[in-house]
Design goal:
Structural class: mainly alpha
Helix content: over 70%
Largest sheet: none
Strand content: under 5%
């Protein structure tokens, strides 16, 4: 009976926690991003502090430097986006021309009206179907979140000693365990974020060189788009590749370039997954692929794209937390990528096979 009550309490806490996380996403998402950026900027602000800069000024300079870099990239991409928008009429004309040509060829091949040249909706009709009120609201919400994140980052770095003192006082009985947990969790966050920034830069460079080589006009925009979408495991790469291949298909007269784009992006993805990420990011998170997929789905359901990115290191922190508890170490193992099988497990399967064989004979 006690076990049933514990399971019921656990499920109740899980459901209530999911509701609070989903309904309070406007508060929690920028806060978690702020925590992550605070860990990422901590080495920079510490470097300034060691050179006798006041803490507030050191943190401000760290955030300012990263913000200038981010705004520079954003300004460059914005110019490319405006250039792409100016090309929409030409792209629409290419769509109509290609559809008319391909439909005519298919009609001649099959001897009937296989595809209508007007089957594809125009860009004007697609744009008219967009709810601009919702889009404007979502944009304003995103800008508000982006504005709050630097404030959270500044305050978390400024009051880092205050929070450390709180944890020391709170964990007076098991202070050493809590301090180890803080150090390990912080290392996971820091290594993951810094590593992913490096991976994003490498993927941007590789994609940009390829798009420039085949003559894509907005090669910087598509390279950064591919790299940023790469932060969303599994799904992001597929979606970004589809858009890139579609653009190359619509702006070139040969099928060679879209096929070459597919092969190259697939090769970059294989290189990133099997060589770049293991070397740059390492195995700090150490979460198995099944747990990663579940965390992406749950994160996307709760917090959207931010959740799909943030939940991977959060699951790594959860695994560390579970491994620190004597009663929950088995659940920590369930999330880990350690697949070593001991003798007890082999004996378990032997006993199970013997039992089924006896029941089958009877």
């Amino acid at each position: 009976m006690k076990t049933v009550q514990q399971v019921a309490y656990f499920l109740l806490v899980l459901v209530l926690g999911a509701i609070v996380a989903k309904e309070g996403s406007f508060i929690f998402v920028p806060l978690v991003w702020g925590i992550f950026f605070a860990f990422a900027l901590y080495p920079i602000s510490s470097w300034f502090e060691r050179r006798r800069f006041p803490r507030g000024l050191a943190i401000f300079l760290s955030i300012l430097g990263v913000s200038f870099l981010a705004f520079g990239v954003f300004y460059l991409l914005l110019n490319q986006v405006f250039g792409l928008i100016r090309e929409i009429p030409e792209i629409e004309a290419n769509i109509s021309g290609k559809m008319a040509r391909y439909s005519e060829e298919l009609n001649l091949l099959f001897g009937e009206e296989w595809i209508s040249s007007n089957a594809l909706p125009s860009l004007d009709s697609m744009l008219s179907s967009i709810d601009f009120n919702k889009t404007l609201f979502a944009t304003g919400k995103s800008l508000t979140l982006i504005g709050i994140v630097p404030l959270y980052t500044f305050l978390l770095l400024y009051y880092k000693d205050f929070f450390a003192e709180f944890l020391v006082r709170y964990s007076s009985k098991n202070q050493e365990t809590v301090l180890h947990w803080i150090n390990d969790s912080g290392q996971v966050i820091q290594d993951y974020l810094v590593g992913m920034i490096r991976v994003t830069g490498i993927v941007t460079l590789l994609s940009g060189v390829f798009f420039y080589a085949i003559g894509v006009e907005f090669y910087i925009l598509f390279a950064v788009f591919i790299a940023l979408m790469n932060l969303i495991p599994f799904v992001g790469v597929f979606l970004s590749s589809v858009f890139a291949i579609l653009y190359v298909f619509l702006t070139t007269d040969s099928l060679v370039f879209p096929l070459l784009t597919f092969v190259c992006l697939w090769g970059i993805q294989l290189l990133e997954n099997n060589l770049i990420t293991p070397m740059v990011v390492g195995s700090k998170v150490k979460v198995n692929a099944f747990a990663v997929i579940i965390s992406i789905l749950i994160g996307g359901w709760l917090w959207g794209i931010s959740g799909m990115i943030l939940f991977i290191p959060l699951v790594g922190i959860l695994k560390i937390t579970l491994e620190k508890s004597a009663n929950l170490q088995a659940f920590g193992f369930l999330l880990s990528d350690d697949v070593q099988v001991n003798e007890g497990v082999e004996n378990f399967w032997k006993v199970l096979r013997k039992k089924f064989s006896k029941e089958k004979k009877n």
